[in-house]
Amino acid sequence: xxxxxxxxxxxxxxxxxxxxxxxxxxxxxxxxxxxxxxxxxxxxxxxxxxxxxxxxxxxxxxxxxxxxxxxxxxxxxxxxxxxxxxxxxxxxxxxxxxxxxxxxxxxxxxxxxxxxxxxxxxxxxxxxxxxxxxxxxxxxxxxxxxxxx
Length: 149
Hints:
15% of the residues lie in helices and 44% in strands. With 149 residues, it is of the alpha+beta class. Strand 1 (3-7) and strand 2 (10-16) form a beta hairpin.
């Protein structure tokens, strides 16, 4: 079922989704280019765990800012405003588990075959709202509490 698509500067490979996990979780392999950033957002229906295989991810989650490297992980609970970025000059590689399943749908419907394609932000907003996700700002926006740390 593996499918690789680009979203926000990351190549996301859907390893498992609701069709293979009975809706319990999604397993996504993430390969993020230097400079990639997600928008500031919040998940209202699922938690997200990021495990780093290589490189460094910087995660702003709620009031926390953490830099994760190989072997590190973070759990982002339901409802926590967060963004994930690669600020180093090297790519980062990790595994993401979303429980219960959900974000694989967004990746499958919104992901692009090439990282240079233009993202349809209106479609992104619609699908995100259907999933219970809330976009709180464009890529680069940080949770205000995290900027105090």
